[in-house]
């Protein structure tokens, strides 16, 4: 026991990295910039830590920091892309069944091919991450491309070849098993189609593979499908989820279990909740597109840090439990003036297997009609684990009704998952 105590007192400070800029107020709080290294000496509360930046000591907001994994980088990281696990999961049917059963998603890609069938004639197409080959098969079935290169890294590619044969498409569809990054083709393509979108649009960062393939294999003037993507945010209520995970501890079986609430917050609200079903009536304001990507011009380096702003005017009074995010993608027409096809994964559209992503605040806030909620959202890609990111939210609420013109500020960072 004694020895342990001594260890604690001598505990060496932990290394952290700042996720974004922070300007401290008063003499007790430190200011720092995104990327700064901090030494955390003590964690007196969950939200505020005692830390050192460039020899100066003071309080820092814990949510602005992430553990410095530099040490890990040298030793234990074998594959920052975790490809064995990633492509392993796509080698079984579970995920393909989920994607193919998603009618909204799959039908959108079918519509894109159908509406562009005339223009696809004699075009060379690449289907990146073709899975079971559904999009490639739509191309062969509904249009007359000269060739479709169906690229798939997982072992599913073996079956995809069989499906192409079984459906009489082997003249048009060529299945290539391998990572798109290592691909060799006899020619450049006119169209690069892919279904790369993850939770919160970017999670998994398959988009990087798509951009690299674009730069190498899409001919000048070729078309990307999807051509544009947007991430959307809305402040929302989440009464049921809050009750299930947090209010529950108030009086289970007539007993007071509230000492478990900090633990519950840590366990259930630290990471975002994937597969959240947001009811339109739980939106407290009109949603806001926070990040818009042009798939023709987006660069891999842009993915490291993507920042967006939001500005909401509350349309309802109620409890603000958190933010919900979803995405929309657009497919431009191959014809001049042709109609754009959209896939919207938001609460007002047909449900998809992505559902929505919920970011719970640590403490719900009561808001009124007319209150202004504004702030920023930043997606920080994990510098080590390339398929992961942290979503940092900063906001302030200006109360319209209060005479004192009160303003509340909040900040929280959500790892997904590292
Ligand atoms: N090269 C080849 N196939 C890939 C690659 C890559 N770089 N990355 C992902 N895939 N929308 N979040 C494959 C993966 O094996 C799976 O079959 C499919 O693309 C993912 C599609 C859905 N995931 C998503």
TrEMBL record:
Record keywords: Cytoplasm, Methyltransferase, Nucleus, S-adenosyl-L-methionine, SH3 domain, Transferase
An annotated GO BP: methylation
Gene3D superfamilies: Hnrnp arginine n-methyltransferase1, SH3 Domains, Vaccinia Virus protein VP39
Cited PROSITE patterns: SAM_MT_PRMT, SH3
Biased composition (Acidic residues): 1-13
Cross-referenced InterPro entries: Arg_MeTrfase (IPR025799), Methyltransf_25 (IPR041698), PRMT_dom (IPR055135), SAM-dependent_MTases_sf (IPR029063), SH3-like_dom_sf (IPR036028), SH3_domain (IPR001452)
Catalyzed chemical reaction(s): L-arginyl-[protein] + 2 S-adenosyl-L-methionine = N(omega),N(omega)-dimethyl-L-arginyl-[protein] + 2 S-adenosyl-L-homocysteine + 2 H(+)
Localization: Cytoplasm; Nucleus
Record carries keyword Methyltransferase: yes
Molecular-function GO term, any one: histone methyltransferase activity
Region described as Disordered: spans on this chain: 1-25
Catalytic EC class: transferase
SMART domains, per the entry: SH3
EC number(s) stated in the UniProt entry for this protein: 2.1.1.319
Domain SH3: 11-70
Protein name per the record: Protein arginine N-methyltransferase 2
């Amino acid at each position: 026991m004694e020895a342990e105590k001594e260890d604690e007192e001598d505990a060496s400070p932990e290394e952290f990295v700042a996720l974004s800029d922070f300007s401290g107020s008063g003499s007790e709080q430190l200011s720092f910039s995104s990327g700064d290294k901090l030494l955390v000496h003590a964690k007196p509360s969950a939200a505020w830590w005692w830390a050192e930046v460039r020899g100066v000591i003071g309080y820092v907001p814990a949510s602005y920091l992430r553990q410095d994994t530099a040490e890990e980088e040298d030793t234990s990281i074998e594959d920052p892309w975790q490809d064995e696990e990633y492509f392993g999961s796509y080698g079984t049917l579970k995920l393909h069944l989920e994607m193919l059963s998603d009618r909204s998603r799959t039908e959108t890609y079918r519509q894109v091919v159908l509406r562009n069938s005339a223009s696809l004639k004699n075009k060379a197409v690449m289907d990146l991450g073709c899975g079971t080959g559904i999009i490639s098969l739509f191309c062969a079935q509904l249009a007359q491309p000269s060739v479709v290169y169906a690229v798939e890294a997982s072992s599913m590619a073996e079956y995809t070849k069989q499906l192409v044969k079984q459906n009489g498409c082997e003249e048009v569809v060529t299945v290539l098993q391998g990572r798109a990054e290592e691909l060799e083709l006899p020619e450049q393509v006119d169209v690069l189609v892919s279904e790369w979108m993850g939770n919160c649009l970017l999670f998994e960062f398959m988009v990087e593979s798509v951009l690299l393939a674009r730069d190498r294999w899409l001919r000048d003037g070729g078309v990307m499908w999807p051509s544009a993507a947007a991430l959307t945010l809305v402040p929302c209520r989440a009464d049921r989820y809050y009750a299930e995970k947090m209010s529950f501890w108030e009086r289970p079986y007539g007993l007071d279990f509230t000492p478990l609430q900090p633990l519950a917050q840590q366990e259930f609200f630290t990471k975002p909740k994937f597969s959240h079903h947001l009811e339109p009536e739980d939106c407290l304001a009109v949603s806001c597109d926070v990040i818009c990507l042009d798939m023709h011009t987006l660069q891999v380096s842009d993915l490291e840090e993507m920042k967006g702003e939001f500005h909401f005017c509350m349309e309802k009074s109620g409890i603000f439990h958190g933010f919900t995010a979803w995405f929309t993608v657009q497919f431009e027409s191959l014809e001049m003036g042709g109609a754009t096809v959209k896939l919207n994964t938001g609460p007002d559209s047909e449900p998809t297997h992505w559902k929505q992503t919920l970011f719970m605040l640590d403490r719900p806030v009561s808001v009124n009609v007319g209150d202004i909620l504004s702030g920023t959202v930043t997606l920080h890609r994990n510098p080590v684990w390339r398929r992961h990111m942290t979503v940092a939210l900063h906001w302030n609420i200006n109360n319209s009704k209060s005479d004192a013109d009160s303003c509340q500020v909040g900040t929280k960072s959500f790892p997904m998952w590292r």
